[in-house]
Automatic annotation (TrEMBL), chains A, B:
It comes from the Bacteria. It catalyses: decanoyl-CoA + H2O = decanoate + CoA + H(+); (5Z,8Z,11Z,14Z)-eicosatetraenoyl-CoA + H2O = (5Z,8Z,11Z,14Z)-eicosatetraenoate + CoA + H(+); (9Z)-octadecenoyl-CoA + H2O = (9Z)-octadecenoate + CoA + H(+); dodecanoyl-CoA + H2O = dodecanoate + CoA + H(+). Its EC number is 3.1.2.2. This is Acyl-coenzyme A thioesterase THEM4. GO terms for biological process: fatty acid metabolic process. It is found in: Cell projection, Ruffle membrane; Cytoplasm; Membrane. One of its GO terms (cellular component) is membrane. It is an enzyme of class 3 (hydrolase). Gene3D superfamilies: Hotdog Thioesterase. InterPro entries: HotDog_dom_sf, THEM4/THEM5_acyl-CoA_thioest, Thioestr_dom. The keyword Cell membrane applies. One of its GO terms (molecular function) is hydrolase activity. Residues 120-190 form the Thioesterase domain.
Length: 207, 207
């Protein structure tokens, strides 16, 4: 597994965040309206053509494969392609995950039309997606950990709208970190609870 | 839970599929290049402005809330906003899920840069996302079912690229349908296995 180091300082990092973050935000809004638009046929066809033109311009220079996980020389980790928290990934809400007072991880975010499963409700798989990320981050504060098992219990539907995810370490046994987490709706009800076992990968042991 | 019926025939359904499907496909390509582009600052800024313009045009007329689940008068179900299989949802790869010879469900699809977690690998939560969908569809061939529990075991990393998901009913006990499923990499190895319990919702019982 490769973690390239980019030769950029804090100013250049901030410049790139300010450039690529808003680009991804505009794409997030486009995703939403691509689902919800009731525009006429000509408008839709013209929109598709314009998007193809923009994509072509952006494609002139691009990296091979995914964005990966990159570091700056000062050790800042850039997970900008991450499907849940990536600054440049319009699929990601994106989650901003912060350390909570109890030492666990917490994130408040909003899930709109693009995250729907049953009518008006967050897709059950999207609940799993965000809980995997937040549980994984709770497990990985000191060392990287990959998901070993993840068990989800759906207690009630999660309405589209504001959502909170929380996770914290339950215990550590050797290379296994046991994590528990929950998803909450806007009224503070637990909608989904999660138990995960995260594994310290072989390449990170002995570090 | 509401399931609107749209007054459209097969021709109009086909027209809308042919209009909105390609629009979402162009947005999928834009998502990919938004992550991977190494274009210069002016190109990025101009791209963001053009996308905002397109979004504004598409936004002139739009539905309230999510797309939901709609039916045509002839009973065709439109889950076009679905986060995994939605024709109009650019977050969705989208999965086309088909009945397999064993009576279960099967889907072949490709996951690119937008679905990345660790470098070069599918995000563990994305594995859960697609397995929830395919397991849920295996559970719901006759009646609708919502996820009750979902347990995932990550057996090996899933590289970005072609992926297969399969799921089938293990047994049915009252309102609970027990489903098993797997994710496979391009070489046919099982990368993630899943066990799910899907629940027939109260509003669908007695139908």
């Amino acid at each position: 597994m490769q973690f390239p180091v980019e030769d950029i300082d804090a100013d250049e990092l901030a410049r790139r965040e300010a450039l690529f973050g808003p680009l991804a935000d505009t794409v997030r809004e486009l995703i939403d309206v691509t689902i919800r638009s009731e525009a006429d046929e000509d408008t839709i066809l013209e929109a598709a053509q314009r998007i193809r033109d923009v994509t072509k311009r952006l494609n002139d220079r691009r990296c091979e494969g995914g964005f990966g996980v990159r570091f700056t020389e000062h050790g800042h980790m850039m997970t900008w392609g991450n499907a849940v928290s990536g600054l440049r990934n319009a699929i990601a809400p994106p989650l901003v995950v912060e350390q909570a007072a109890d030492g666990g991880m917490c994130s408040d975010f909003t899930l709109g039309a693009a995250y729907e499963g049953p009518p008006g409700l967050v897709h059950g798989g999207v609940c799993a997606l965000v809980l995997d990320q937040v549980c994984g981050m709770a497990a990985s504060t000191a060392k990287p950990n990959l998901t070993g098992t993840l068990s989800l219990r759906y207690r009630r539907p999660t309405p589209l709208g504001p959502v909170r995810a929380r996770a914290r370490i339950d215990r550590i046994e050797g290379v296994k970190t046991f994590v528990v987490g929950e998803l909450y709706d806007a009224d503070g009800n637990v909608t989904v609870s999660a138990e995960g076992v995260f594994i310290l990968p072989a390449w990170a042991r002995g570090r």
